[in-house]
Amino acid sequence: MIKLNQGFIAISTVLVLSAIFLSISLGMSLRAIAGTDVSIALNEREKARLLAHGCLDYARMELQRTLDYGGNEGILIGEGACEIFNIEGSGNNNRILMVESTIGEHTVRIKDVIEQISPNMIILSSERVVSF
């Protein structure tokens, strides 16, 4: 009878320890997966920000090249897309430039208020906005 109880205790102990190790392993795996999702989201957000600034630079160069540049164009780069909206204002002074880039589920919008375009571009403000 004593041998029967010792076997039961050993099997019970092994089952309990296995359940504990399984739950710890599962928790660590879920945490690693969640960390990967956060890392991907941060990477996409940074790419969207960089793409928006690249499109903004492109629009500024086009505006300096020709004052008649009106924007209103889309640019596809890799897995991302950028849109340059209609440039508000006319002539050399007081222009508003707006761009929006999207990568994955992340969208970045930047609005530039330009005081003067030529001979040197003077930007009064350049800020990230929620909407236009």
Could you explain how this protein is built, in words?
This protein is α+β, with helices and mostly antiparallel strands and 132 residues long. The chain has one domain: Pantoate--beta-alanine Ligase, Chain: A,domain 2 (2-Layer Sandwich). 48% of the residues lie in helices and 30% in strands. It is built from one helix and five strands. A five-stranded antiparallel sheet has the order 1-2-3-4-5. β4 and β5 form a beta hairpin. It is rod-shaped, with a radius of gyration of 29 Å.
* Quaternary state of the chains: single chain
Count of distinct strands? 5
Strand order of the largest sheet: 1-2-3-4-5
CATH class: Alpha Beta
Q: Under the CATH scheme, which architecture would be assigned?
A: 2-Layer Sandwich
As a whole number of angstroms, the C-alpha radius of gyration is 29 Å
Helix content: 40-55%
Shape: rod-shaped
CATH superfamily: GSPII I/J protein-like
Summarize the structure.
The chain is α+β, with helices and mostly antiparallel strands. Helices cover 48% and strands 30% of the residues. Strands 1-2-3-4-5 form a 5-stranded antiparallel sheet.
Give descriptors for this structure.
132 residues; alpha+beta; Pantoate--beta-alanine Ligase, Chain: A,domain 2; 5-stranded antiparallel beta sheet; rod-shaped
Q: What is the topological layout?
A:
Layout: H1 2-65, E1 73-77, E2 80-84, E3 93-103, E4 106-116, E5 122-129
Antiparallel strand pairs: 1-2, 2-3, 3-4, 4-5
